Amino acid sequence: MKRHLLPAVFLFLGTSLSIPVTAQQTAAEFFESGINRSKSSDFTGALQAFSMAITMNPENAPSYYNRGLAKANLKDHRGAILDYDKAIELNSKDAMAYLSRGVSKSRQDDHRGALLDFSRSIELNPDDPQAYYNRGISRSRIDQYQGALTDFSKAIELEPANAYSYYARAITRQKLNDFAGSLTDFSKVIEITPKRAQAYAGRGLSKVELNDFTGAITDLNKAIELSPEDGESYFYRAYAKGKLDDYKAALPDYERALALKPDNYRAYYGRGFCRSKLGDQKGAVQDFNQAIEINNVYVDTKVVYNGRISRAILDNLRNVVQERDKINELSAERAEAYFSRGVSKNKQGDSKAAIVDLNKAIELNPAYSEAYFSRGMIKSAQGDQKGALTDCNSAIKLKPGYAEVFYVRGLIKHSLGDENGGCLDLSKAGELGYNPAYKVISEYCN
C-alpha cells in the first residue's frame, strides 16, 4: 500500500464529505481516497477514509500515520498522538511518525516528550532540517538555549534558505545575550522575507541592547510601518529615543504603546521618566505610580561643619551636580520606577516622600548605586551628612568609577573637617572626568 507523507504542519480545515462505501472498495482504495482528501484539505473526509482502511487492514502503519496527520490538522492532537503511537508500534523505524508525534506533543505543551521524539527522528533521518528545527523549538521552550542554538544551526546548514530557522536562531542568541550574533540572523531573515515585521523588530531590540539607538530607531520605524499595531515596537522605539535624550519624541511612542497595551508598566515608567526630564513632575509621579501599582524615614542629625567648606558652600556646590541618569530597562521588581518617582518627588520639594521611594528602590535592588547616591544627596541637603556619607560609600562600592559621588563625598568630608580625605575624593572625581572638581580643589585644597 502506497504511503503518502503529509507535511508536519497544520493546514486549514476543509469541507467534510461523507465516504460512500461499496462492496468492491478495498483498504488500499480507502487509503488513496484519504490521501486525495488530505491534499484538498478535506481532513474530516480523509479521517473517515483512513478509518475505513484501518478497519479493513488494521496492521497498516501508514494508515494510522496519515489519520494522525488528519487529526492534527483538525487540532485533535491527543487523538493524533494515539494514531502515531500505533504507527510507531507497527513500524518503529519511521522517522516521520516520531517527527509528527513530536509536533503534536509540543502543541500539548509536552516539550520534553516532544524533544525525545524529535531526537529519535533525527537518529533515523539525520538529514531532515525540520526535525532539528522542531527540536530546537522544544529545547528553547524548556530553557535549553545552547542546545537549541546548535539545532537551529544544523537546520540552517541543511536548509540555508529557511527564514524560520534564522529567525529562531536570532531569538535564541538574544536569550543567550549574544545580541551581536543575532543581528546577522535577523538580517538574513530580512533578506529572505523583506516584509517580515518581527525581523525588523527583533533586530531593533538587539541594536537597543548594543546601544545603537539610532540604528534601532531605523529598524523599529520599519517594523511599525509593516505592523502598526505592534505595541512592543513603539515601546522600544520610545526607549531608544529616550536614550538619545529625545524625550519629547519618545512621549507619543510611549502613549501609543500604552494605547495598544494598557497594562504595559514599562511604558508608564518610560513615559514618567520622559515627563520628569521635560519638567512635568506631576505627570511623572502619576506614571511612576502606575508603573508600581500595575505590578526608613529621615531623622535629623546634628552636624558640626568645621571645615573651610561651610554648610552654605556645601549646599551650593552639591546642588550644581547634574543628574546623569539615563532611562534603563524596568526590572520585574520595579526598582527603577520607585527611584524615578523619588527623584521627581524631590524635585517637587517633597524630600521626605522621595526618601521613602528611594528606600524602596534600594530594598528591591540593593545594588542600585544611583539610588544610594540620590538618597545621599537628599540626606546631605537635609543636613544628615553622616547618612549621606554612608550612602555615598555604598554607591562607590557598587560603582567604583562614579565620579560625581566622589565629588559630593569629597565636599561632605571637607565640610566635616576631613580636609585631606575630602580633597583626595575631589581629586579622584577629577581623575574620573568630573572637571568641576578641579575648581573646588583650587579654592579649598591648597
UniProtKB/TrEMBL annotation:
Gene3D superfamilies linked: Tetratricopeptide repeat domain
Ranges of the TPR repeats in the UniProt entry: 27-60, 61-94, 95-128, 129-162, 163-196, 197-230, 231-264, 335-368, 369-402
GO cellular component: cell outer membrane
Organism: Spirosoma linguale (strain ATCC 33905 / DSM 74 / LMG 10896 / Claus 1)
Signal peptide as annotated in the record: 1-23
Matching InterPro entries: TPR-like_helical_dom_sf, TPR_rpt, Ycf3
UniProt protein name: TPR repeat-containing protein
PANTHER family documented for this protein: TETRATRICOPEPTIDE REPEAT PROTEIN 6, UDP-N-ACETYLGLUCOSAMINE--PEPTIDE N-ACETYLGLUCOSAMINYLTRANSFERASE SPINDLY-RELATED
Domain of life: Bacteria
Keyword Repeat included in the entry's annotation: yes
Segments forming a coiled coil: none
UniProt KW keywords: Repeat, Signal, TPR repeat
GO biological process terms on file: receptor-mediated virion attachment to host cell
